[in-house]
Automatic annotation (TrEMBL):
SMART domains: PlsC
Family affiliation: Belongs to the GPAT/DAPAT family.
GO MF term list: glycerol-3-phosphate 2-O-acyltransferase activity; phosphatase activity
Any matching Pfam family: Acyltransferase
Coiled-coil stretches noted in the UniProt entry, renumbered to this chain: none
GO biological process terms on file: cutin biosynthetic process
GO cellular component, one term: membrane
Record's keyword terms, sorted: Acyltransferase, Membrane, Transferase, Transmembrane, Transmembrane helix
Full protein name: Phospholipid/glycerol acyltransferase domain-containing protein
Protein's organism: Chenopodium quinoa
Entry superkingdom: Eukaryota
Phospholipid/glycerol acyltransferase domain span: 277-379
Amino acid sequence: MEDILLKSSSMFPYFMLVAFEGGGPIRALILLLMYPFLCMLEEDLRFEIMVFICFFGIKKESFKIGRIVLPKFFLENVGCESLEVVMKFGRKVGVTKLPKVMVEGFLMDFLGVEDIIGQEIGVIGGYYTGLLDKSEIGKNKQEKIFSHMMSEESQYVGICGFTKSYKTRPFNILKDIYLVSKDDKKSWNNLPKEKYPKPLIFHDGRLAFMPTPLDTLTMFMWLPFGIILSITRVLVAVLLPHEMCSPIAAFLGLRYPYTPSKDNPKYTNKPENSKGMIYVCNHKTLLDAVYVSHICRMNLFTLTYSISKLSKFLCPIDTIELTRDREKDAAIMYKVLSQGRNVILCPEGTTCREPYLLRFSPLFAELSDDLNPVALQVDVSMFYGTTASGIKAFDPFFFMMNPWPSYHVKFLEKLPKEWTCGSGGRTRFEVANYVQDVIGKALSYTCTGLTRKDKYLVLAGNNGLYH
């Protein structure tokens, strides 16, 4: 796999992802410090030591990094030309030096590979030992795959690199073998997202960059400053008023360019005793409402579904937690709007990192005809400020640890009356889908019918409720 699909055959970044996301920063730092010494060792020994450092003591049942983190980074390293060749074949068998648990999600879920010939890691008491399984059981599993291949009438073709792998099974039992050289790889282009065999919509993990040795060293050098800067940025947002917060936040490296519209509350005079407006946003991080509130220079109410107690405590604007009971939630929202308070909500119910919009819950459409869509776009260079399987309370801090986190807020035109439930006679589903489409076009995002439940079933194996 690594010799014919990936532009760079270096396995260090993928082991670093396992170490950081699965074992934490201390394990990742150990791997980084050991790497210069590992480079002086023979390749097979170096590989086995990296496996041991990354997997020792990791619980097998909870290890999901191979399916929810690594596929994104494998896809970013795939050569467009090599993938086109591989995808032309029917039944595909993947051969890799990496542990199977690291590549199953990528090869099976995205490339449609039916069988994988790779290495297994020993398990004792439900925990990985970090030692490669070289027992007869592991060898027998591979022999079954070999036997199945040889028993089929269709002819198998082998594609591999100029390494000793083409002299080993299953390549040494194939009639036709095509070799890929390093010079061939130099001419490959990166695989664009629109050519992914399957859309990458959901993925997890904190690292937003490919952790090469140099980039990982940069991250650890930045980390002490980043932690201090993150806490400072959060305290500024929590403790200072809007007028003071904006210039200080800009000085601390926070960037939030925005595109106003004529309906922007900074330029709109609202009559007294009028009903509040609903700002409908796509959901990028827990800080969506905070950024919009700072730009509007007003204390908006934000409606949340399920957040940690720490996030509630630190939130500088008023929050109301919804119950997921439609009638109760409608009553809560109507009461706030009747008081003339403007409300900001994210009907997706959860975040999505990629350029896709999840299904919009239609509840907001029934409560007011005064709807203002807001399109949000976030750029980070080091850490993601969201997680499905990690500790959600740390989300704002990870986002603020980025050197130059950017939040682009684009206020769109208010919904025309003909596209509302009250004046326009539209159903709540029509209005919700229309708002989703408007925001999607503004961001060049693809609209989907996926929900919060779909995301958390894929990434965390639960329904996404915070207890």
